[in-house]
Amino acid sequence: MSGALEKSLAILEYLVDHPDGVSLGQIATELNQLRSGCHRTLQELVRFGYVRQTPRGDYALTTRLPAMGLNFIGKSGVVDIAQPVIDRLARSTEELVRLAIVDGERLTLIAKAQGARSGLLYDPDMGIDLRLSCSAAGHAWLMTLPEDLAIGHVSRQGLGTPRNFGPNAPTSVRALLKMLDEHRKRGFSIIQDVYAPGMSSMAAPIQRQGEAATGVLVIAGPSLRLSTAKMNRFGPALLAAANELAATGAASPLLKSANLGTWGNVGDKPPPPARKTVRAAR
Hints:
41% of the residues lie in helices and 15% in strands. It is α+β, with helices and mostly antiparallel strands. Strand 6 and strand 7 form a beta hairpin.
């Protein structure tokens, strides 16, 4: 990747988290870029319509990137295929249901349905990349991978800490692998107070037999309402919905097994099914 392109992408990704705008000095400092070079890159991004300058001189994203993303998701057909399934599962569980897509080493939330009509609601931001070690979706995907590949993904992203996530977030690879073993036995993941305090969630991979998982279906809600017993009761419905999406997903490029659920990161072949290995001490 060229230096100019890398700097431009770093700025765009940084501005995603600052919708109100950020000063030139803060951008250059946070991204470890020279102020003069950062200013030139920002001016180019302004010229091409990806960044705007606010009245007080800060820099913020325009709607061009979000519009491109929404257009891409819409034309992929994934929401048209998945939304009826998500809606049905949300109505039957009366909880939030989410669809996450596998993209290389990331899981990105792209669709949702809210089943709860009253009381506490749980609804994280759409479009976020999930922390693999701390999310039910991350666990559901990792449990389908060979152990060394799962460890590699988590190591590169980093373990989430209980201080930043929930008090039950795994603090070591060994602890995470133990949780994944438990998830595999039941066929779907269940976590409580792992992604956030007071939150429960469960997830099942969208995966055709013998192929790589292309997405994950998630049910989430407040722990006061979504207990472990209730999540176990929801298990068959969750698995049935995930299997339905696996069967119909070939109609969307984002859920095609041939593409490994990715765009721009197509591998030669999907990873082999998860297998248990002899573990060295970690």
